Amino acid sequence: MTSSAYFAADYQEARGKFLDAAKSAGMAVTSHPHPGKGPDGGALAMDVAVAGDAACPNALICVSATHGVEGFCGSGAMVGLMREGIVAERPEDTAVVLVHAHNPHGFAHLRRTNEDNIDLNRNFVDHARGHPANPDYAEVHPWLVPDDWDGPARAAADTAIAGYIAAHGEAAYQRVVSMGQYSHADGLFYGGVAPSWSNENWRAVLREHGANRKRLCVIDYHTGLGTRGYGEIQFERGPEDPEFLRAQQWCDGQVTSPEDGTSSSAAVTGYMAVAAAEEAPKPERTCIAIEYGTLPWETVLAAVRADNWLYAKGDVNAPLGREIKRAIRDAFYGDDDQWKADVFDRAVEVTRWSFKGLADG
What we know:
42% helix, Aminopeptidase, 2 domains
């Protein structure tokens, strides 16, 4: 079987393949039903498959679809890890926990965000204490969400964005747009004002499967940045952090960080690994993301912007809406055999590195 067979065309197919593979691998499955429905009226859930038990001192937790539409990648990788016996290679002292569709609503509806337009990787902050500041976002917000997408308002907005980039640089524009904002609920990279359903259920998984371990590794699958098909191993904090240094040792020195300019990602606020420190403070933690490239960054951001506009001001069922949905899927899912093979091969490599790192300490 080629690795392409592990990937799916939509959320419901992906979920079915995941549950079937988990059953064949003899893994225990727990489902967290989501209150919403898919575009087809189908049920949504965050499904958790587990190999090993609570007595294992170490655990590897892999997560897909934190950014919904990016879930095709992580889903296919995890199905392959089960089907090809990679999960079964785990050391005896290591449990494996596969979290399918952290954000099932976004996965099913082909949205990067959740049911409330929240970017989950900006939602993990202490909302009661106030939110990280991003004052420059207010200036660019009207250009990101113009009144029309195929008329004069969009043209004027694009001109304004080009002027901002000319004045401040592309890196500054990427930072302002993507670092996270908490003031415009209809805007891009919105972090929300309270913990989301996915936030709360991810924390429950961490408490159940991570809190009492000796060592814990978390791998979060993402797409949309970097060279097409390449799986960049990212760590959110700075390169002097002991966790970063440990990840570098495990992963053959291939880990990047936005804080030293080696990552394709800008530094962000409220990312989901924060919950690992809060809900599983006891174990030695190593939390990384694998970011697989798809299309050029400008194309990906344009797709995100268009999809955000569509739900704020457009019509999903209109011809333009359907065109935008095709574009957002293409921006985050390299639906070809080579891309899928690259995704799976890198997933296997990083999984095996993590098994060794957990076992060696």
